[in-house]
Amino acid sequence: MHEVLAVAEHAEADRLAVAAGVSPAALMEAAGAQVAAEIRRRWTPRRVLVLCGPGNNGGDGFVVARHLTNTGWEVVVALLCDPADLSGDAAAMAQQWRGEVTPPTVRGVEDAELVVDALFGAGLSRPLSGAAAAVISRVRERRMPTVAVDIPSGVFGDTGAAPLAAPADLTVTFFRKKPGHLLYPGRSLCGDLVVADIGTPDSVIERISPAIAENAPAVWASRYPWPTPEQHKYDRGHAVVVAGGPASTGAARLAARAAQRVGAGVVTLTGPVASLPILAGAVTEVLTEAHATASQLVTLLGQRHRNAVLIGPGNGVSSGTRDRVLAVLNTPLGCVVDADGLSAFGDAAAELFRAIHDQCVLTPHDGEFARLFPDLAAGEGRLVRASAAARRSGAVVLLKGADTVIAAPDGRAAINSNAPPDLATAGSGDVLAGFVVGLLAQGMPAFEAACAATWLHGETATRFGPGLVAGDLPEHLPGVLRDLRGQFGGRSP
């Protein structure tokens, strides 16, 4: 279930489920029953306050209250509106509730031992206010054990923004995740996230064709370039990594090692003549070759078999770096532009974008992104920003962070969720760029290569754990690849 549904797409999934014969009441009943079941798995009976809003989320809350009461729990429902203002299935579920209904108050929170947050679902796109804000603020202040229905109230489902929300210990959503479950800060507020089956047919996914996915092997494993017996090294691709001056070759060396480990058959490091003794003395299986000008770099890239290039790490922010990037983009090779290669265009982004072709990946962190896309940097959520940047630039944009987003110009996007905090270490971004160029060299399409590299980067770091430094990532990647090939090798997921 790697598909991620925007709020409007989830509403369409509900509509299609109803069209397929599943009643709205059945969906609501199943949703509330699933939440109650997850609560009983984790807690023993205690005093529960169910906060219900005026919409379908509130209807789900009434079902939760009924199921818990029927199994011996002490439950009070706090309804944000007048019961007479409820309509449709939410009103019907409220009528089936035989217990106490009160307005939501701070005092009600004080008397509870567990809160069920069914005020608002993922469709909310404005900050909480009034009684809802007061109650959620108190829940947050007390650090109450909390269960969120669909998403913690106050978290925006399409962006993960959360002007005011209480952290949940458990969030139960339905059918598929939404972007707000995966994007920070919403992701940090969801606690243990459960995706429950409420009877929506999986076939509706084909009708919706969502463009967003949670990054996982299911997104890209069918395109992964596993080696075959008849291949020789050049069939597995020749990646070129452009290094900087003698004092800054480490980034390129890390990237080159990463490109090797991810499967590129041959890797060449190229840099100024003064850098070659350092490069040659520090690497074994990697070839080295000097270039002095952008035109010499193009000649080097035009040699037989070379098919992908990474430029930027340790190259310096200069007009020379800019010239080299433009020269590289004027070749047909797959290209990754990272680090200084991006920052060199801080005042000339349009020039970079004009040169980009369809097998180009840009790998900015937030600071580099802001230099290239200053008008998008403060936009509404990382998913929106990355997608807009991909459309504008024509490149696949890999916007790095704790919730890395990979976006393609055609509208596809993947949100990465497996990166541990251990990756916040110098050089880890250079390794990621090396993984991407190594996969491009092997013929993997740009979007899938960026997704695969990001997931492998996170999975390797997770397995390694505390004490990670960037150089550990390429050396521990083979174990991840071994397991992945055992699961998917040569087969679609």
Layout of secondary structure:
Elements lengths: L2 E2 L2 H13 L4 H19 L4 E6 L3 H15 L3 E6 L8 H9 L4 E2 L3 H6 L2 E5 L11 H13 L3 E4 L20 E5 L4 H4 L3 H4 L2 E5 L7 H5 L3 E3 L2 H4 L17 E5 L7 H12 L4 E6 L4 H7 L4 E4 L3 H8 L4 E6 L7 H11 L4 E5 L1 H4 L5 H7 L4 E4 L2 H7 L9 H12 L2 E4 L5 E3 L5 E3 L12 H14 L4 H19 L7 H17 L5
Helix pairs in contact: 2-3, 2-4, 3-4, 11-19, 11-21, 13-14, 19-20, 20-21
Quick overview of this protein structure:
This protein is α/β, with parallel strands linked by helices. The protein has 21 helices and 18 strands. It has helices spanning 7-19, 24-42, 56-70, 88-96, 106-111, 130-142, 179-182, 186-189, 204-208, 217-220, 250-261, 276-282, 294-301, 319-329, 340-343, 349-355, 366-372, 382-393, 428-441, 446-464, 472-488; strands at residues 3-4, 47-52, 74-79, 101-102, 114-118, 146-149, 170-174, 192-196, 212-214, 238-242, 266-271, 287-290, 306-311, 334-338, 360-363, 396-399, 405-407, 413-415.
- In the CATH hierarchy, the architecture of the largest domain is 3-Layer(aba) Sandwich
What is the residue-averaged pLDDT?
Answer: 96
In the CATH scheme, the class of the largest domain would be Alpha Beta
Total beta-strand segments: 18
Class of secondary structure makeup: alpha/beta
Which geometry do the CA atoms define? elongated
Provide the CATH superfamily of the largest domain.
Ribokinase
